[in-house]
Amino acid sequence: MVKPVLLLDSAPQEALNLIKEFGLQTCHTAPHTGEYLVADASGISLCKTGEKGRVQVDFSGGAAQYRRLKGGGELIAKAVNHTTFPSVWDATGGLGRDAFVLASLGLAVRISEQNPAVACLLADGIRRAQTDETVKEITARLTLTPGDSIDLLQAVGESERPDIVYLDPMYPERRKAAAVKKEMAYFHGLVGSAQNEAPLLKAAKMAAKKRVVVKRPRLGEFLNQEQPAYQYSGKSVRFDVYMPDNPEYTSE
Length: 252
Hints:
- This protein is α/β, with parallel strands linked by helices.
- The chain has helices spanning 13-21, 62-70, 75-80, 97-104, 116-129, 136-139, 149-155, 178-191, 197-207, and strands at residues 5-7, 26-27, 35-40, 43-48, 87-90, 108-113, 142-146, 164-167, 211-217, 230-233, 237-242.
- The protein has two domains: 5-55, S-adenosyl-L-methionine-dependent methyltransferases (3-Layer(aba) Sandwich), CATH 3.40.1630; 62-242, Vaccinia Virus protein VP39 (Rossmann fold).
- The strands form two sheets. It has a seven-stranded mixed beta sheet, with helices on both faces. Strands 2-1-3-4 form a four-stranded mixed beta sheet.
- The longest helix has 14 residues, at 116-129.
């Protein structure tokens, strides 16, 4: 179900254009239940009826700023081998945080996102970041492609195949921070929890030139119960690495 957008008079024209582009319906009073988007002077945000606080794609400050400054020391940099492979396809876009970190490492990152409300949040976050001189160059390396990632990966042409396909499927993690819990609760409510793990992993392995990297909780199960070739583990998360499943693949 596509969530409505509460449209406030202060919403900039750029936000209105995105709402129209992604086919979202507008309203002028907040829904009685559930999640909904709000468009105002700050951009487009995700809210929930009866709850305080908002979720917004923010590449300029907060967690994004911390991870940007931390840079290549992150485990994700090792998992994608960022010094060797320049292109990544993030096929589970979400709020775009990992995609932004990958772009901050100098990689060209294509993001695909099926849910139109999430894609709209992402597009608005990229739009606002492009006006911030501190992250403008990084967000220029992000390309958003709305649509079903499985279909897009299966249809990719030879010249568009990425070195890496990156996956971070929805997973019911337990988090300590209340703010993170609320944010993930909003997000789960918006997109649901259904996963097409088998076809997603298969499509990723066929499209990637060099490897598929899957983000999981440190003690979580393998995606689609498939054993990876190797892993990079941290305190709370790990990255499972799968080799491509295509005839052009040659060992690294």
